[in-house]
Automatic annotation (TrEMBL):
Organism: Triticum aestivum (Wheat)
Recorded superkingdom: Eukaryota
Full protein name: PA domain-containing protein
A GO BP entry: membrane protein proteolysis
Subcellular location: Endosome membrane
Amino acid sequence: MGAGARATAAALLLVAAALAGVAAGGDIVHQDDDAPKIPGCSNDFMLVKVQTWVKNRETDEFVGVGARFGPIIESKEKHANRTGLLIAEPFDCCTPLKEKVAGEVLLVQRGDCKFTTKAKVAEDAGASAIIILNNRHELYKMVCDQNETDLDINIPAVLLPKDAGTILQGLLSLGKVSVQLYSPDRPLVDTAEVFLWLMAVGTILGASYWSAWSAREALIEQEKLLKDGHESSVNIEAEGSTGMVDITMTSAMLFIVVASLFLVMLYKLMSHWFVELLVVIFCIGGVEGLQTCLVALLSRWFKPAARSFVKVPFFGAVSYLTLAVCPFCIVFAVLWAVYRRMPYAWIGQDVLGIALIVTVIQIVRIPNLKVGSVLLGCSFLYDIFWVFISKMLFHESVMIVVARGDNTDEDGVPMLLKIPRMFDPWGGYSIIGFGDILLPGLLVAFALRYDWAARKTLQSGYFLWSMVAYGSGLLITYVALNLMDGHGQPALLYIVPFTLGTFISLGKKRGELRNLWMKGQPPRVCTHSHHPLKDSADSASHVISS
């Protein structure tokens, strides 16, 4: 690993921490969460599909949100009625309409009066439902005032975002428009979350074994040199860890501060051009990660090419195998960047992301449990602050806004792993931030390195139980996500107590906590080192006797 790889690792760690708290984003902008339920206004907020037809020809489908008031919207598409759509006159629907309607759905504009007033006026005019167009591009929850009493509303109300309203008005200019309103149920188990869980656990598993294998190879090489009689053990140890970066206590604490500043910068500068810049940075890191992984895999079959080097300007000595693999990695990343808005672009994003995470876990190391506890503990607090507490300062969750890529036309920032919800009628993606895999992964990799160095079995070591703890913590995250009705969850809120708590508890129970905490490696007796006092005494004895 060269300086470029180490710089890439540090940069990715920064971005990973900035997006540590994103386990999944909600489908709508959640507002009025504290609005009380009162008689006649107690519906759960539900997403609603609005399918359209122009002159009996199926066209666009939009997604809105149902109101607290009114009847429950039909969940089965086959049972939902197809009804004509009309624009209300007046458009705000705050005063009685100029003409009665015969069961059509009314399209009205938000503003000038309460949502409930609009629904009552539409119902009095004979409408079967009301579609309210928001004056902003996101959705908003329609609630009732606490002092409202006349809430006998018998038609459903749906709010659509501003851009959907613009399209609908354009369709109405083409001829007769019909709409169908229904709210299909989500599946009980999201298969995308199952695969995302497997992807996250598998990434840490593979990265940990690679990290432990590299450490063991370095140790074997060091022991060979000692057996050959080399004296400069300090230099040998340094050479054995070439390319690796050990996190210190200071860097672990400063890291979260810098990550916070970076997150605020992302939040304030979030725009189309800034996301494009993040895409470029992600591609550079992805090329480095994919190249490192491929070279490590292929070097077993192409040893001569992996061991033969050539000097390249600005890069130094580069193996022929790296030169052969690099063009493929560059083309792969460029193709993903160009076609990242295509339906299957998530595959390329996940490949680049996993390769990058695996590479960083192999390069960056936690030297002991003390540093790991500080790093994960700070990340734990950081995660909670930027997902939950930041709402008090910025009036929205900074972490979730950045992850979704608000104020851009992108489907979120690229520093995420995601899988489409293929069996969900609502579609969308289940996502997880890099930090939710990478930061706990550093601790799990440390556990496996320690187990191998101490020659522990799988059951008597720390790696197996750390993996179980991480998987359990991530599983609880997804359970909480579903219980919280799709609100984005800070995954480290659940993962850190499980993973770190398990490690510390096992260490204390086995009497190894002090060694894990301070040294991070098992006690080892070096049989090849010389004893200076003993050698001097033997020499003096030899001189006297002679």
